[in-house]
Amino acid sequence: MRILVVEDEIKAADYLRKGLGEAGFVVDIALNGFDGQHLIQEHEFDLVILDVMLPGLDGWQLLQILRRKSATPVLFLTARDAVEDRVKGLELGADDYLIKPFSYAELLARVRTLLRRGPPRETEFFEVADLQLDLLKRRVTRQGERISLTNKEFALLHLLISREGEVLSRTLIASRVWNMNFDSDTNVVDVAIRRLRAKIDDPYPVKLIHTLRGMGYCLEVQA
Amino acid sequence: MRRWPAQLSVQLAALFALVSVVLFGAIGIYLYQSLQQEIVWRDDQALKGRIERIRAIMDDGGDIDALGRRPQLYENMLGNRDNVLWVLNEQGRAIIEVNVQQLPIPHVPQQAATRLLDWSGSSPARLAVQTVELGAQRYTLIAGKLLAEREQMLNAYALRVGFAVLIGAVLAFALGWLVSYRGLQPVRQLAAQAASIDVQHLDQRLAHFGQHHELKTLTEALNQMLVRLENGFLQLSRFSEDLAHEMRTPLNNLMGQTSLALQQERSPDDYQNLLISNQEEYERLARMVDNMLFLARAEQANASIRPQRIALHDLVGQLCEYFEGMAEERQITLINEASHPLWAEPDLLRRALANLLANALRYGDAGKPIVIASRQAGERIEVSVVNEGPMIAPEKIGFVFERFYRCDPSRNQAGDSGGLGLAIVRSIMQLHRGSARVSSNAQQTCFTLVFPDRQDG
Questions:
Q1: Predicted ipTM?
Q2: Which domain, by its residues, includes A100?
Q3: In this complex, which of A181, A192, A214 lies closest to B280 when CB atoms are compared?
Q4: Residue A190: inside a domain, yes or no?
Q5: Is B287 exposed, middle or buried (0-12, 13-18, 19+ CB in 10 A)?
Q6: Residue in A with minimal Cα distance to B353
Q7: Which chain A residues are within 8 Å of B361, Cβ to Cβ?
């Protein structure tokens, strides 16, 4: 998978290259609009990450140039989150946008979502190690034992298990599970995770829900 | 176009002058016309009288020729060069002629009664004419007065009136300027005082000029404006200061921990812990910036929202589910008694109520319930969040919606919103054209959101 990052902030470009590289992507970096234009015209990418404010050509112009050529998914990075800016980006054909400052985990999650292409698979049955979740029957079992969860605990586990291996930030969890679309200043998500753990992890030797301090939570089998 | 005089006193003086020109001019014209009418009337009477006298002499004497032979008599009688007199026979020949200026004999109509008419010959004159029959003879009597002298006199009079008007206007201008200049003295003082007030001296007020009602009103209005400006300015500068202070705390943590870590070689665990701790501080800063931006946008004059009809009970139910875990850890029960549907933007309402609930959970007594309720109050719908807990001191309760205000200044938790939560609640309510209020007593604290009944648009 090849990703183009057009970002004039050198530190930001650097950590994006490093981070996306570690996640297994091939990353090209352009530090200004003209280099970005050149790379877009010469090569094929699976995803383009564009900063809006760029020297030379800005992100909007690059997006227009790109759209003349292909439907490659585009993720916008912007420090300005005025509603008009979002509308403009979406009208020009951006697929997603992230407002600075954002956490790297959030960026990686968005990149993976965009690269999945098309709607995510609607799976009805999940299985991680000995944990099973049946969406239709609303049934959760571990080691074959039925575990009873509240509605929100079930929704939280469904979110974690459907994004197995991905780090989910607290903001994302609050937004998806409780529809809280603003940065909450409480430890609600931590409490909810703690309660979920008490039911599906604590009684069992293999822990599945992991805390990544400063980043969020992740459900996976760790070696 | 010529520029209007910039000074108010000059402008007023010019207006005074204009008014006096109009006034004096009107009086002058009236006086001139009265005089003219009077003179015309007197002259006409004199001419008529003259005709009557000649006629009386002719009636008595009968001998016209004898009259004609004594012209000195008439000359004496007529007195001066302006007067003319003809007695014409039927052939139009002058029998008697007193005509110092040698005017030609005018052609006049036959007239039984005395008639007055204007004669415009080489020298304009006013004539009185009468035709009399004496025996078989018919005579025409013409008495006249040349107008030149009269015109001259009236012209001189008009000139003098005009001159008087001009002098009057100049005087009115000068006096008007003096009076306005003196009258506007307090305004200049006011201006001098106002000019001395700058950003450093916003606490100064304008002194009252008691004797003038208009100036008093103006001074009061200006002073009220100063109060508002001062408050706004103080709020703004205090806010900037608070903001800087609030950012100092996380920055201090970041700088201190990082420079300490760099003092010597550390284990990977230490570095990781440092980075994680830094990450938390960054998140705190980011949250603060987000909240600041939210507040700044909400206060923009053109900020608008798209309210929709909301089933309040369900929305509060979601919030209760969200906070359920936190509440249970403190043995607090969340009781949802909200029921009234209302018009609001769901995300904003959720955010406002979430802030109030977080607040109630933070400050409420453990083991006591928190009640979210709604009620109709006239046109409005009130949503309240009530918790049992320590009372907010009366001297502090007025400030709880202020940015960065904390009832307990030492309380500075890493997780809190940096003292902006309730300020955001207030902003959200202002966006909805409603309001937020708080009451507190020894048992419980109640935050209330007041929504207008229905918002269109």
A1: 0.75
A2: 2-115
A3: A214
A4: yes
A5: buried
A6: A180
A7: 186
